[in-house]
Amino acid sequence: MKTIGIIGGGQLGKMTILEARKMSIPTIVLTTEHPSPASEISNDYIVGDLYDDEKILELANKCDVVTYEIEHINVKILKEIENQGKKVYPSSNVIEIIQDKSKQKKLLNNYNIPTSYWEYVDKNNLKIQIEKFGFPVVQKSCTGGYDGKGVFILKSKDDIKNIIKEESYFEKYIKCKKELAIMIARNTNGEIKTYPVVEMAFDEKTNICDTVIVPAQISKEIGEKAKKIAIECIKALDGIGIFGIEFFLTEDDEILVNEIAPRPHNSGHYTIEACTTSQYEQFLRAILNYPLGDTTLLSNACMINILGEDGYHGKTKIKNEEEVFKLPKTYLHIYGKRETRPFRKMGHITVLNKDINKAISNAKAAREKLKIISDSLG
Amino acid sequence: MKTIGIIGGGQLGKMTILEARKMSIPTIVLTTEHPSPASEISNDYIVGDLYDDEKILELANKCDVVTYEIEHINVKILKEIENQGKKVYPSSNVIEIIQDKSKQKKLLNNYNIPTSYWEYVDKNNLKIQIEKFGFPVVQKSCTGGYDGKGVFILKSKDDIKNIIKEESYFEKYIKCKKELAIMIARNTNGEIKTYPVVEMAFDEKTNICDTVIVPAQISKEIGEKAKKIAIECIKALDGIGIFGIEFFLTEDDEILVNEIAPRPHNSGHYTIEACTTSQYEQFLRAILNYPLGDTTLLSNACMINILGEDGYHGKTKIKNEEEVFKLPKTYLHIYGKRETRPFRKMGHITVLNKDINKAISNAKAAREKLKIISDSLG
């Protein structure tokens, strides 16, 4: 079987490799440290900076298909690998567009895919520009944003002095009913499969996607519309692999694309237990150009992130995991990160239940019990 | 979390460790070779003979709970480990009984659990003894039997000269309607969970369990009876861990216990995709004394073994795996054994389908396409 090279050693790589191991598909990981969640179960690994061109070339030389579990990587070196005739999925063109959120928006707008209204920040004309948007207004860095970083919400004139300095754009603040997401896969034959529309809830403190409810509690029409837009997105990108498409559902039931992740996504973790084919197996199928798998939802589900407890830095300690096992149809995922930090993504829990409210309450109960701490407060 | 030490580096260890990795439960494997299916994904491994007492003690020293994925191990050293205060699950008492099929039978008979009628082979009285049983009669080695080895069926007087020489017993040949099996788990608190009754079909050529059909196509009464007997078995054994109980269903709808496997079992592979909790996660829960998981069957299923193609010895090559991905709800498991041999267990395929006949035909279609071969015929 073909060997897959993965740039990044985190949990998305790990969960991909767990699926690959099931089928004995060989993997090799470029990781900044070993052991890491992904490198400790891959067939081989290279320790190095994820921006180190030589290390990426070394990885490419050792595998048949290059992919990545993070989007902050050097596009130039991916292009070089492609020019050498090696497959990179999603392609360098896709990641180039995704990395710069303004390019993402431009592409989507060119294809008439709805997004919130936006404009590049014009530093020479700041006041007039902001007046046009009104408060609150969202400012986003073109590049480098992640899990709430690179996003600044200006609530009043007082915030103007604190605006993001690097290249950025203003975006209309969307008062949304819900944030939705869809996982969608496309293989090199152009076959496309969408997963159910899910609903995301974000932690107010950390702005990290916190809880995923499946299926989203929305009308059938809105669900179909979201799926249609997701398909348009992946076609516009000419994307091969698996993608998480995030949406705003506005108060007027408009669906706007917020952003696109070119990889397995937090909002798709639930697929491991709740769908016929997990997002990770689907990812492998897509980039190895196998037929895509069935995406039927087998059960309603709630996924909740397990973050490092506030106040704790240092060697990871897991507390009260037995409490999680007491809850029905509750699945514990611990990523195996050796060091915990406040709000670091350390694991997740998925709960299945016919009754979505029970799934949510059980997931919350599990998270309240389970603690990721370290020996000493730090 | 507690570290689990596993004696054996094969596919049962591998699939257990895949579940352990999900939760970052640390594992260490004693394996005769590395890489092996289990040792290449465990946190640590020891290379050594599985009968080497020193290596087993080394394993025990490095973990909190000792278990095994094969039953042919030295009981004495397990007793020594237990005497040192370390947990061994299933306990040395259990494995001691299981290893000697005549002891297994005796125990079951003591608890009035039905088995086929049997007698120790009396070499001084062979002819009279065989006459009593009549032909065909089954002869089984007390110890060392596995996947059809250690079993001899005497069809006529001509076979008497070829009987098994080591300690053995005769067993009444059961003309059975079906062979059934149940996975059953029990934790240290005495909590018990049973899985659905499955139906096993054996390959005539190799006598290896070949196809598992879930649920068994039997009446509800027979299913309930089999479950009741399985519970009696695990209680009689005082077993902690997960057990595969194999049954004969006679033409008179009697249920006889054939034998007991004190570990995850081929007939339970289907649980990975078809049940809420897989046999592997259940195994971990049982030996770590967590509450046991829900065993609900989510879909009808058929599991089929993938054996090394006849005629091929050497470095494993997988052919036509893409054909498997074309089939709906079909899951490919390749164990990652580096060397193939004729009829060696190299993987399995599970197919889910509401319609059990479709599951069976898709599983057979998958197996017809997929071939495990090597570069050269050998």
From TrEMBL, chains A, B:
Any GO MF annotation of the entry: phosphoribosylaminoimidazole carboxylase activity
Q: Does the keyword Lyase apply?
A: yes
Q: In which pathway does it act?
A: Purine metabolism; IMP biosynthesis via de novo pathway; 5-amino-1-(5-phospho-D-ribosyl)imidazole-4-carboxylate from 5-amino-1-(5-phospho-D-ribosyl)imidazole (N5-CAIR route): step 1/2
What are the record keywords, sorted?
ATP-binding, Decarboxylase, Ligase, Lyase, Nucleotide-binding, Purine biosynthesis
Q: Where does ATP bind?
A: K101, K140, E171, K172, Y173, I174, E179, N258, E259
> Per the database record, which ranges form the ATP-grasp domain?
105-288
Q: What class of enzyme is it?
A: ligase
Give the Enzyme Commission number.
Answer: 6.3.4.18
Query: Per the record, what is one GO cellular component?
Result: cytosol
The answer to whether the entry has keyword Glycoprotein is no
An example GO biological process term is:
'de novo' IMP biosynthetic process
Q: Which domain of life is it from?
A: Bacteria
Quickly give the catalysed reaction: 5-amino-1-(5-phospho-beta-D-ribosyl)imidazole + hydrogencarbonate + ATP = 5-carboxyamino-1-(5-phospho-D-ribosyl)imidazole + ADP + phosphate + 2 H(+)
Summary of the function given for this chain in its UniProt record: Catalyzes the ATP-dependent conversion of 5-aminoimidazole ribonucleotide (AIR) and HCO(3)- to N5-carboxyaminoimidazole ribonucleotide (N5-CAIR).
Q: How does it assemble?
A: Homodimer.
**Family that this chain belongs to:** Belongs to the PurK/PurT family.
Protein name, entry field? N5-carboxyaminoimidazole ribonucleotide synthase
Q: What organism is the protein native to?
A: Hypnocyclicus thermotrophus
